[in-house]
Amino acid sequence: MTSAYPSLCPRPFEYDKSHVVSSDGVQIVVRRWGNRRGPPIIFVHGFAQSGLAFIRQVRDERLAEKYHLITYDLRGHGASDKPLDRNAYHDNRLWAHDLRAVAAAVGAARPILVAWSFGGRVVWDYLKEYGDESLAGAQLVGSSWRRSSEWTSAASAASLPLMLEDDLSTNIAGTIAFLSSCFATPPSPEEFAQMLAYNMTQPPSVRRLIVGRPQQPHDFIASLSLPLAFIVGEKDRHCDPRASRASAERIRGATFLELPDVGHSPFYEDAPAFNAQLLSFAERAFPRG
Fold first, then answer.
1. pLDDT, position 148
2. Could you tell me which residues come within 8 angstroms of residue 88 by beta carbon, excluding any fewer than 6 positions away?
3. What backbone torsions phi and psi does residue 195 show, to the nearest 5 degrees?
4. The model's pTM
5. pLDDT over 70 percentage in the chain
6. Which stretches within the chain are classed as H helix?
7. Per-residue confidence (pLDDT) for residue 134, from 0 to 100
């Protein structure tokens, strides 16, 4: 099935849409962009978001010309299934199985993963299940695994409780506050409306089930040995740059990049800079053919 999303794009930009079935029967929506014969890059979005968050990557001509770009909606998000079962979200293996099913369906052997915020946890789940050799590399964007009370996010603490409420007006207010805090420079009203729309496809009952799912052990993450890059915005209000830097420093060979004057969504706020560094990372991670 071919669809277009012209309101987020100045010109029509088509993608191929399909779905895959994960190991527990959950259907995951997949969108394919760019060069279907190129090396694969899979984008993993954050909490309450959608694969459509990466619209400024998949419509970048430099990336699309060379790479097979794949987005998908995580379980419980966007257009994917939203089971009302705690185990569907707290069994970390299932998040890895979802990604494996996506990669297999589109023929993405050893892809690069670009994971935003909560999506970074899917990277650790995948590596725990399938090992370092399953990926060519990964970028963790606005994401960290090191914790400290100094790095606690006031923005998350203020908005998340409201996002979990069943009362619609409260939920909308919390989601607006959360989404607004993801940017140092706000998107246009039309862009913000589109983002809010796909954030609101996730019901609070599912959000409550996802919150608090277990994390992978720190000693496992510290032992990884594949190309990893931690990228954070200087003005990120959800992932303290110090936490991202500390996370990179604990993994041998990992790199850290702080992009100036942007917040929790550097891939959207400064797409040219973000896409340029992704192109450079991909050139190094994929063997030359």
1. 79
2. 24, 26, 75, 76, 94, 209
3. -65, -45
4. 0.94
5. 95
6. 55-58, 61-66, 87-90, 92-105, 119-130, 154-163, 168-180, 189-199, 204-210, 218-222, 241-249, 266-269, 271-285
7. 97
